[in-house]
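Subject: CBS domain-containing protein

B.,
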Amino acid sequence: METGSAGKAGGGTAPASAAAGEYWSEALKSFLDHIPVSSVSGALQPSPSPALEFRLDGSVPDAIESMYRGNVAGAVIVDDVRTSFGKFVDRDIGFVEFPSLVLWAIEELDKGPGNRSSDFLSSLKQHPQIAETKIAWLAKSFLWEPFFPVRTHDTLFHAMLLFSKHRRINVVPVVELMNSSVIGFVTQNAVMELLLSSSGLEWLDKIADKILSEFRFANASKPVSIYSDQVVADALHILSKEKIGVAVIDRKTRCLIGSILCSDLYLLVDDNSLFQNRNVPLSTPFLILIPQESVSNKIYVIRTLSAEEFIKLKSKDEDISTENSSASDGQSVLGLRTGQRKRADLPVTNRKSDTLKQAMENLTASRSSCSFIVDEDGLVEGIVTARDIISVFSPPCMDSRIDGGTFFSAALEQTGCRVEHGQMIQSS
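Prediction pasted inline below.
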């Protein structure tokens, strides 16, 4: 009898509570379940079929090279399965991302000496195991994601559920009809951009104006970090396990000076010296020898690339990419080179005293997947990801790890409902 008791105690508050409940439920319905996916930036691309496709029997080196040449960060995995009726069933079965393939390939290359004077793409084809590995095999190592598309007439609510419930999904493909070709993609940053477009509305600002310290993710464990003088291979090894981002800190001051993200990995293919000089984890019993020209013949010298040097080189590359970027690129929503950040040497950061909205603005402006939370001295305290933010605005019943205080929780309270153990319960 919770609702009745509240009404008696508050006297005339019952009508006001009912009116508030109607307001919140209408806000929820109108904004999320009435906005079609087609309204999300990038959901509909100008090209009839913008998605790059790979068959299960395609080779991994060919897939990596195709994505690199096409400046595409992800591709659809297809399998033409025919039924006895001659129709295709589940033609699109997965989605593979460029960083996952590159990190897997580097891990395989670093298991043996190989030919370390070759460029990245050539090294893949010269390595027997990598050259023979098919896309289908990677499913055993969970290196490609399940295919969960949305249709053009589905809503933002549907896309947000997918991001919140399936932790491995970073991109949601868009199709006109089930089993039809992919016509666009919904990214986590695009969802945040759409949410920010409603800045100023009470129901959104009630959540977005809260400071980060009020959210559980801001007080979780610190992100994995490496020292600026460690070799790049150490960061790559961490990325292959974490898939989020590596904070690069100064050994003396312990301050954050940069970051190495999955979105930076194309640089190893762009610049042959970065790939060759990445070195290998210090526990590996061999050194990388890089050729240099001399007057009489070629000589070899030991050369390693530190994380700090990589960050500086990344900044120079981003400056060039920004100058040469074109907004008309049909693949820009999944482009390897975003051309957005002019200071790639500076990591995306926020303070715990910043609001959730400020973190959203930072991530969308930089098109980054994460922002490092630092204190006033530049020491890393935590990390906030695009998925963390989307989960705040997603139904708590989809993920029991999401606690109260979110937009949906507040809306449910106003309508006399609550969520307990992943179940929606109506107060009696």
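The chain has a mean pLDDT of 76.

T.
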